Automatic annotation (TrEMBL):
It comes from the Bacteria. The keyword Membrane applies. The chain crosses the membrane at residues 57-87, 128-147, 159-182. This is Uncharacterized protein. Keywords: Membrane, Plasmid, Transmembrane, Transmembrane helix. The keyword Transmembrane helix applies.
Length: 200
């Protein structure tokens, strides 16, 4: 293998591991945040007095909205990391394919050669992680909605159903936009999709 391609191959493998680790770290961060907030809300309710408890749902609405926004910002980074992950993976496959073509007595390759796969794939651990984060965002959007309506609603069951619908709609919207973004961006060369360079 050419020395440049050898170094490029090794560096791209390092980048794959780096972005995969980054994706996992950010996903764990969202899980930590999502589990810590309910504990905070419960603690606020338990240590409060009757006067502060009257304002409890206002507090829930504010904290939930801020949490949903924070998760959304982290999710945006996660999605971008996924896009960055795909390009070194494609480069590794391209170098492998090129190198194997030069070897006449090796015809049983068991590793990836595809250089055109998209950043969004249903059968991907990253996609599953993204979906779980989208659900977390949906939950806190729904909780914020619930907090704004609890004092006005006369039908608790209808409010629960409406909040569930809000959760599903928010989660699907966030996940759908991320899927469309990844599918669209990864069609192009990284100079175009990442650096916004004009195609020649």
């Amino acid at each position: 293998m050419d020395e440049f391609l050898k170094v490029e191959y090794e560096k791209c493998l390092d980048l794959i591991k780096f972005y995969d680790d980054k994706h996992q770290t950010l996903t764990k961060l969202t899980a930590t945040l999502s589990s810590a907030v309910p504990s905070l809300l419960l603690a606020f309710y338990k240590i409060g007095n009757p006067e502060t408890n009257e304002q409890f749902w206002h507090f829930v609405t504010f904290i939930s909205a801020m949490t949903a926004l924070s998760l959304l910002l982290i999710f945006a980074i996660i999605v971008q990391v996924r896009l960055y992950f795909v390009y070194p993976a494609r480069q590794v496959n391209a170098i492998r394919k090129f190198s194997l073509a030069k070897i006449d007595d090796f015809d049983n390759n068991q590793m990836y050669l595809d250089t055109s796969f998209g950043a969004f794939k249903w059968a991907s651990a990253h996609t599953l992680s993204n979906g779980l984060v989208a659900i977390q965002i949906g939950i806190f959007v729904a909780l914020a909605f619930f907090g704004t309506q609890i004092d006005q609603s006369r039908d608790f069951e209808s409010l629960i159903l409406a909040s569930a619908a809000v959760m599903a709609a928010a989660a699907l919207a966030v996940f759908g936009v991320s899927a469309a973004y990844l599918s669209s961006k990864s069609k192009y060369h990284p100079d175009i999709s990442v650096h916004n360079a004009r195609s020649k």
